[in-house]
């Protein structure tokens, strides 16, 4: 596998090895021994979200959960925002396109929000989590916050009620300060 650092501390792109032949393709998406060399994380939960084109989920996060995210069907635009006040990459945003064709995965550290938007007709987003999901510890950041200037590819996004009410970056940062 290939590891590519991003502009956010502890956030990296992982490109697994793909083996293709006349029958199709084989990709190993996780191996405890290999991945522990990147960061030794005790993964506790796997989740999938299924979306239609234009659906935007996020920006969501908490202060304790590592996530390993990837597309297992279709194409999606991923955004990661560093909300860790003690991080040298505080306030930075990283974006990329994940697809079933590029097989890229992104390791998202605790204290970073992530969100994705489905670009293809449908897409399936897979994520491993180092903690069990706890709705009470989650925050939702305003996906269109001007301070972040994320250029979401599809402007007319389909959102949940939760995502329509996301907090501005500065409001999340104040919450972060209370938790440090």
Could you walk me through the main structural features you see in this protein, from its secondary elements to its overall organization?
The chain is mainly beta and 180 residues long. The longest helix has 11 residues. The protein contains 3 helices and 13 strands. It has a 6-stranded antiparallel beta sheet, with no helix packed on it. It is globular, with a radius of gyration of 16 Å.
Using the CA coordinates, give the radius of gyration: 16 Å
Supply the CATH class. Mainly Beta
The profile of the biggest β sheet is: 6 strands, antiparallel
The CATH topology is Jelly Rolls
Sheet with most strands: strand arrangement: 1-2-10-7-12-5
Oligomer: single chain
Nearest-integer average pLDDT:
93
């Amino acid at each position: 596998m290939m590891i590519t650092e991003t502009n956010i501390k502890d956030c990296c792109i992982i490109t697994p090895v793909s083996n293709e032949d006349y029958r199709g393709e084989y990709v190993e998406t996780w191996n405890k021994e290999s991945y522990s060399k990147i960061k030794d994380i005790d993964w506790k939960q796997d989740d999938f979200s299924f979306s239609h084109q234009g659906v935007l989920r996020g920006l969501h996060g908490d202060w304790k959960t590592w996530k390993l995210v990837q597309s297992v069907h279709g194409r999606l635009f991923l955004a990661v925002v560093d909300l860790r006040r003690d991080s040298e990459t505080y306030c930075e945003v990283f974006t990329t396109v994940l697809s079933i064709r590029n097989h890229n995965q992104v390791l998202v550290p605790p204290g970073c929000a992530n969100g994705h938007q489905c670009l293809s007709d449908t897409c399936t987003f897979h994520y491993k989590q180092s903690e069990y999901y706890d709705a009470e510890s989650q925050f939702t950041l305003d996906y269109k916050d001007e301070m972040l200037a994320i250029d979401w590819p599809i402007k007319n996004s389909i959102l949940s009620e939760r995502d329509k009410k996301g907090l501005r970056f500065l409001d999340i940062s104040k919450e972060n300060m209370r938790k440090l």
